[in-house]
Design goal:
Elements lengths: L45 H9 L14 H28 L2 H31 L3 H5 L22 H10 L3 H18 L11 H7 L3 H18 L7 H18 L1
Protein name: Protein-glutamine gamma-glutamyltransferase-like C-terminal domain-containing protein
Pfam families: DUF4129
Organism: Mucilaginibacter paludis DSM 18603
Length: about 260
Amino acid sequence: MLKPIFVLLSPHPFTGLTTIKSKVVQAPRYQLKTDSNKLLLHQFNPTALNNYRKNPEFNYTTTKPVITVWDRFWNWAWHIWNNFWSWLAELLRKLFGNASMGHNTAQTFKYVILTLAACMLVYVIAKLLGVNLLQLFKKKSTGDAIPYTESIENIHDISFDEAIESALAVRNYRLAVRLLYLRSLKQLSDHNLITWKIEKTNTDYLKELSDKEQLRQFTLVTLQFEYIWYGDFPIDAQSYQNISALFQDFKHQLS
């Protein structure tokens, strides 16, 4: 069924509307000016550019480093090393049931092994260089089985041949070298080339020698003696024979 639609029509439908009058406004016209300035072109200096290209400080090109076979070996060794300690830490963690204890124990083992490896390396180097490590850490004995001391020894009271033989019999080559040097001082004193006094130093005796050849040879044996005695360096039988030959040459020079 259709329903009726009622439309109300107003007798004045446009009541209340305002009429707007439009007005066209003419925009002002501006005259464009042309740029009269001259264009100045700058040229780069080819020589300066070439110098910059050759200067490594201005080379920002990044090159990939070349990995050598040696680098690969160390990378592999380092990888194996880290994996081993990671495996050990995991194993200890399972044994102790504590991750922190397993890690700390593995680190302790690592430092112990590194310390042992460093000691072994020092030992091998010392052997190659012929250095006696025990002698370096050994406290110097005040007696050292020496029947004479530097403070009381008198070169005119020592029987050098017997003393040297006694030192060689017990393989005390350092003492034997010292006795050789003291005997050389006695020889210089017997030839009136020096004035021996117990408080004098080796440098004092060197200053008293005027003959150039005697001074040269005595300087040589003095250096050998000071190196062995005051440097506390141990010597073997062969080294002693070589040093003894120098003292024999000096003795013949005085004869």
